[in-house]
Design a protein that fits this description.
The protein is of the alpha/beta class. The protein is built from nine helices and nine strands. Strand 1 and strand 2 form a beta hairpin. The structure holds adenosine-5'-triphosphate. The site of adenosine-5'-triphosphate has 11 residues, from strand 2 and helix 1.
Length: 234
Amino acid sequence: MIRLHEVTRRFGSVRALDGMSWTAAPGQVTTLLGPNGAGKTTSVEIAEGLQHADSGRVEVLGTDPWQAGPAHRARVGVMLQDGGLPQQVRPMALLHHLATFYARPADVTELAETLRIPEFAGTTIRRLSGGQRQRVALAAALVGRPDVLFLDEPTAGLDPHVRRDVWSLIRETAAAGATVLVTTHSFEEADRLADHVVIVTTGRAVAEGTVAEVSGDGKLEDAYFALTELADAG
Ligand SMILES: Nc1ncnc2c1ncn2[C@@H]1O[C@H](COP(=O)(O)OP(=O)(O)OP(=O)(O)O)[C@@H](O)[C@H]1O
């Protein structure tokens, strides 16, 4: 479970988070949608324990992530946009190495096959294409079989086959009981994946619920534009 309640975070005069509240439940995919600068990355980094909140309450797996120790962090998987991967290593060597950090890691061979990593297993990470690198970053986030998984735009730049496989892998991860949080700018991705949608703008959540609840009688896209334009005007 991830829970943010009335969280604030300032950078100088910028109020990145201005009373941000949302939740993400186990066994569900929650997608966070919102314009550039709305506060998605800041709220996710706070939930990951990489940044602290100025005020408000943050709880992940029953713990304040900023105070949490290594046992908590081992239960959390993170996929960052630019990967943060070592450059001179081949993908399988990296994944086998990461698996040794966990008590009950995923089956590395199976995980790699699902993400079609064997296609480029002989290439060092430095020489991979953006999409290939992203697949390795996703495998790295999943190898510890995390209870909470944070994915930042997981399918941006992926080809349609791989995107479809990544979507089913994300659904399977949630079906196995994990709390999965996905930030995205894709309405299609939110429609396909989300059990729960949160729309954020100017540092606050302005809607939260199932796709049907948030969309009302129209499409998710229409609700998004109405809600984010309304908040900007206010
Ligand atoms: N370290 C920082 N120093 C100064 N300002 C920051 C910092 N981090 C974030 N901000 C500001 O806080 C606001 C929210 O940024 P954030 O990265 O959370 O937005 P986002 O919703 O993730 O945007 P995007 O869709 O572009 O990734 C922005 O105005 C951003 O410029």
